[in-house]
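Internal QA ticket QA-208
Title: Verify multi-chain structure generation after dependency bump
Assignee: T.L.

Test input:
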Amino acid sequence: MESDEALVERVRGGDMRAFEALYERYEVRVFGFVVRMLKNRHDAEEVFHEAILKSLRADRATFAAGGYRAFLYTIARNLVLNRERSSARAERLLGGLPEAERPATPGAALEAKELALALDRAVARLPPSLQEVYELRSSGLSYEEIAGVLAIPLGTLKSRMNQLVKILREEVKPWTAP
Amino acid sequence: MDCTLIEPSLLAFALGSAEADEAARVEQHLVDCKACLVAFLALKRHIERPGPIERPSPAARARLFAEVERRYGRSAGATLRRAFARPIPLYQGVAAACLAVLVASLLPEIGASIDPPRVSSGERVDTSRERPQNLDLF
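Actual output:
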């Protein structure tokens, strides 16, 4: 399989088939990460669009250290943070908007679907610094890559991961406890 | 091993953050315990693919592809746009200016070499056509 870096070089040389291959590799994962962080499809599409274009402008040296994948997630994450700051400012001006609540399934049996729902809710309630760790991990990034994207030491990341696990474990206990 | 001892480690194991000895215990337990295995697989499935698959809309996808094509595509228009958008290195600009000056200075000489010859009266003679020998037709 051709490396991401080789595909980027081909895209910059005008090869649109290389772009299609690169896009298919990251469309679901990166867009999924962005839309879950922003919780707004329109904003997520704009951020994803910008992240892809920015990532193509960089040269090999820029993403040599962590690779193209980590670089793309770093850009996406920074754009998400910028967008969140802008919308937080807008919300303060508008007096805040009510958050859409996912309806609970009344009287539901203990199924994997309920566990997934519980996990969804728990993740949504995490503080942003822990939520992004979870989302990056579930996007398939290694710990080294996540530490690179967040620009934090590996030790700090592991500490956040332990906090995250502790919180989520309590939330999903009803569905995982024997 | 008792499931109550394994359950606290299931999520960490699914996230890949369990310590080596903890992970080994969980792994061993999952081989024999169907209930814990089901719980672990549900967690793992959600972690690796949380929620419905999200993709940008077809319109957003088309806009991105069009933009990439415009910036990097191999069409003549895109190539020209890139050529004009690229800044010219200083040495190339200087070399082009020197060449232009040289050509401009040589132009009068080039022009003189293609001018028709002048006769003593100062009148130019058009040598492009043969003159008729006898103009008296009657």
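Spot checks passed. The mean pLDDT of chain B is 77.
Status: verified.
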